[in-house]
Amino acid sequence: MRDEIKDKVINATKWSSIAEITAKIVNPITNMILARVLTPEAFGVVATVTMIVSFADMFTDSGFQKYLVQHDFNSEEERYQNANVAFWTNFGISIVLWGIIILFKEELATLVGNPGLGDVVSIACLQLPLTSFSSIQMALYKRDFDFKTLFLVRVITICIPIFVTIPLALLGLNYWSLIIGSIFAQLTNAVILTIKSRWKPKLFYKVSILREMLSFSIWSLIEAISIWFTNWIDVFIISSVLTQYYLGIYKTSTAMVNSLMSLITASIVPVLFSALSRLQNDSEEFSRMYFTVQRIVSILVFPLGIGIYIFSNLATQLFLGNKWSEASNVIGVWALTSAIMIVLGHFNSEVFRAKGRPKLSFLSQVLHLIVLVPVCIISSKHGFWPLVYSRAWIRMQLLLVGMIIMKLCIKFPIEKAFINVMPTFISSLAMGVLGYLLRQVSANIIWNIVSIFICCVFYFGVLCLFPSMKKELKKLLNKVVPKIKKDIIK
């Protein structure tokens, strides 16, 4: 059972990683083109619309997707019955929400700073029923570790802007090109997933099944709302206290770091949740899977975070340009704290949900918000930089709370998490010291790039001094490389 799950995780992570890498290559190119065709105001309109859609989308999904992945069903028939109830509930909620948005479209448009654009908001929210249509399909694919199909869908969706959004933008459709592109992407998602799926929606509904699902899903929904507030509270405070200039510096910098980190986490987290859900009743294998994934993630995330911190000036220049020099410090501190947070705390919520206890994740978010909100408000009164550093480091409080809950409520051996990643932490720290010394030699871009290459070689050299890590790296290469060769031959 352990080897079977582990092989599925490695294979699923491979396809998920390829999808994320493809996204990170294609998306910047399309955004660069669109940024030269469309005005900043167009992106502003779409950003505020996206805020409404993302908030409403949480209610549309209702946490059923996580339930279908996490829950152990007695038969395929029972699983499909639950899928049908989840689908029709999702779809019904999405239609109701879309109707409410249409009724109050002008009020909502004014609320998000786009008065007179109510029609834009209502049409853009057509994505809600489309998203609800595909979310159940995606849950079933994740449950079966079929990330190869999800990779196909993701790649097609990523390419939508090239064939739809950019041509419409060139024809002068302004922000409508972005909105139509998003709607078309969601429609494509729903059609492909439905065609390829073994499960198809049927006219079946049972209130007793809904009640059982809601006992889990309602807390997943509440947790999602709390996470939404955690992610947006700092932006609300900056926009109300400081200027739009500083809001742009902050949001663009943190988004860039999150995008780089998600190259690793976005490909692993869905797979980890699926794996932990299957092992939820086997504590030993559950812990072993968690620590295996945590160690693999730390191999990449620790050096990435410390590397961006040391070479933040170069990162800013390469990704944002010379006009964004003030963003350097934001990027550096956010990358450093993100690395710590991802390795030691990012997977806690996956453990809570996989164990069927999403209330614990909500509790940790609430305990964090109690501290986060006053810290952001007080620090903002002292200026932009106190707010930036306070917001970045206060995340360690969330990390501490998560660990305490893991230890007390889940009985998880959290102390082993530190021992588990100590080799990668020491190797990354040594690399950071070398990087700092190399940076003192010259500020030249070429020298900095050479220094990064030297740091990478040095890091893996130090890492291989630890016998356990050397064995882990060899094992990963032996498993991943043959699979890639096999898929290429196919």
Helix/strand-derived category reads mainly alpha
Q: What is the 3D shape?
A: globular
- Provide the β-strand percentage band: under 5%
* Low-confidence sequence ranges: 481-490
Cα distance, first to last residue? 27 Å
Sketch the major β-sheet: none
Compute the gyration radius: what is it? 23 Å
| N to C succession of SSEs | HHHHHHHHHHHHHHHHHHHHHH
Indicate the topology.
Elements lengths: L1 H36 L2 H22 L2 H7 L5 H28 L1 H7 L6 H7 L2 H17 L3 H24 L4 H22 L10 H35 L2 H35 L4 H28 L1 H8 L7 H19 L2 H7 L3 H23 L3 H10 L1 H15 L5 H6 L1 H20 L3 H19 L3 H23 L1
What's this entry about, in short?
With 490 residues, the chain is mainly alpha-helical. The protein has 22 helices and no strands.
Overview of this protein structure:
With 490 residues, the chain is mainly alpha-helical. The chain contains 22 helices and no strands. The chain has helices at 2-37, 40-61, 64-70, 76-103, 105-111, 118-124, 127-143, 147-170, 175-196, 207-241, 244-278, 283-310, 312-319, 327-345, 348-354, 358-380, 384-393, 395-409, 415-420, 422-441, 445-463, 467-489. Helix 2 crosses helix 7, helix 5 packs across helix 6 and helix 14 (327-345) runs parallel beside helix 17. It starts with a helix and ends with a helix. Residues 481-490 have low confidence and may be disordered.
